[in-house]
Amino acid sequence: MEPVPLQDFVRSVDTASLPRVLRVYSGVYLEGSIYEIDGNECCLSTGDLIKVIQVCLQKVICEDPGTGQTLELPPNFQGHFSPLTSPHSFRTLEELVCDSTQSSIQLPIYFTSTHSIVTKNRVVTENQPLMLEAVEMHHGTHCARCVLVSGAQQVVLHLPLSQKGPFWRWKPGTPQTLLQVLQDPAYKDGMFTCPSLPWNSLILRPQYEVQAIMHMRKTIVKIPSTLEVDVQDVTASSQNVHFIKPLLLSEALAQGGPFPLSTEILEVPEAPPIFLSPWVGSLRKGQKLCIYGLASPPWRVLASSKGRKVPRHFMLSGAYQGKLRLRPREFPTAYDLLGALRPGQPLRVVVTKDCEGEKEEYPEFSSLAVGDRLEVLGSGQVYGAQGQDIDVLVCQRLNDQSGEENEDYEEVEDQERLLLPLYMPGGFVEERNDSRRYSLADLTAQFSLPCEVKVVAKDSSNPADPLVSFPGLRLEEKITEPFLVVGLDSKPGTYFEIPPRWLDLTVVETERQPEPPAGPVPVATVEELSEAFYYNLRKLPLCENQEPPPRPPKSQNLNEQKASSKEESTESSKVSKPKHPKISLLPKLKAKTLPEFFKDKSDMYSKVTTRKGIRPTESQTENPDTDEHDYEEIVEHFRKTL
């Protein structure tokens, strides 16, 4: 088959024979035809193969050959068409007869008139079909004997050959619909008449949409049939040609199967590696993979190693079967203690670093020594020396017998309550006597993250479990993300899990039929993460659940120094100004921020702990109407309360 314009191929192709493979040939002056599809440019170059899978009629342009006027018809146009067999009209019946004789057209001849014909006994309306049976003498005049079909009756008319038209020769038969005349190859480029349209003769120019498959395109290409390219049908010689359709792992995940799915890698994203596992190096172009389906369970835990200068970061699958034991948590500041406090869960810590309170500016802030035992009660606020609010952590200093069952009331009453500013640096380690071994699922269900653990038994399904070698592990955050279970064809028995969101490979399906695994696919339940990827994960909204710690207030001494330096700079002026000594305002408790810890101790213990032997004691409350300059009364109030 020689190359033909795309429009001609579409008009002549039988839709029942689709799909057809075409080779593209560009026009004489074109190296390639570029057109736009949904905002994306598509190029058809010489030699390209396309696989036509469907042809859809979009619209039909109807043209008057005499004037060149056009109008657009929808594919569902309801009018009926009769084909005209002559390329032009005839002015008289004599011209019609002579042209038919010269063209060796046998009688009878079917024709129609574009104007009404008035005879002695009848009026023939315009476009009414007539059949010319013979030419004979009638009443001494050369006439055309015509038959007019009117319902079930046939009427014979003798029309003189000088009868003026114009006349059109037409093909007999039942008028056809628009789709019927377009699908008949005999009517290609023919002329028609249609009583529903304003013209006596017309040409139909259909426009189609060609739906085709191209190499390396994910979607079906939609090509207008009016595109000026030539094509050649090469279906017979292209039986072994396979059109590659790229597929992203995210698309395979969204489709939901069918799994297992045999694929080959076409492209690997150009980005720094996210996993530090050996199988990452096998992900390259041409590598064959088998996708077994969605990993279960879908949740993961981010973890970091403890006890080394450079921590390592891991992602633990929810299927991890190692055994974990809780480790005492370490807290560098009072703010971290407040973040770890949970309702109904007492938090007791031991001080590991001496901390001196700011006695000069804030006498009520406590100092801590190594070995002090504290119980965290909650948070509150106090008035600072400069009038600003200072967030504090309310704690209780414990004696050595506070955890025993036989402690008496007097010992509990003598226990000291402390106020620690949240910005206070220090060192605290949690008191914990829990020696139970937990699975990862049980631990995340019973305790809030982050928490610190020690892996005391490795995952039996992962002989190379690296977590048992660390003295401690900090479980940071629990995330939920779909993973795909993937295996390497080149390394049987090598299976791993890929998150399409962060490692979206471009693959293509292969014809090889994968064999379903005999049992559960053994995958690595621990993947080491690169440092950059780990911190990118920690930036996710799911992980941003804590506010930054508060900044310490400006030191009053520093303010006094600035003020004194400013005063010294003005001593050289001749105008002397009286100097007023600055009185340091001692901080006052805000009346509504610490009621739980200083008004009713019995209520405080009911909310924080359920220890036995606590006797409720009365405490004085601050009078809100007290003069703000009664410093001695304020200090005395703090001493009685604390």
From TrEMBL:
Residue stretches in coiled coil: none
BP terms from Gene Ontology? regulation of B cell activation; T cell receptor signaling pathway
For region Disordered, the annotated ranges are 543-586, 600-630
**Top-rank taxon, per record:** Eukaryota
Pfam families reported in the protein's UniProt record: CABIT
* Occurrences of domain CABIT (ranges): 18-239, 269-515
Q: Which GO terms describe its cellular component?
A: cytoplasm; nucleus
The record's comment on protein family reads: Belongs to the themis family.
Q: What is the protein name stated in its UniProt record?
A: Thymocyte selection associated family member 2
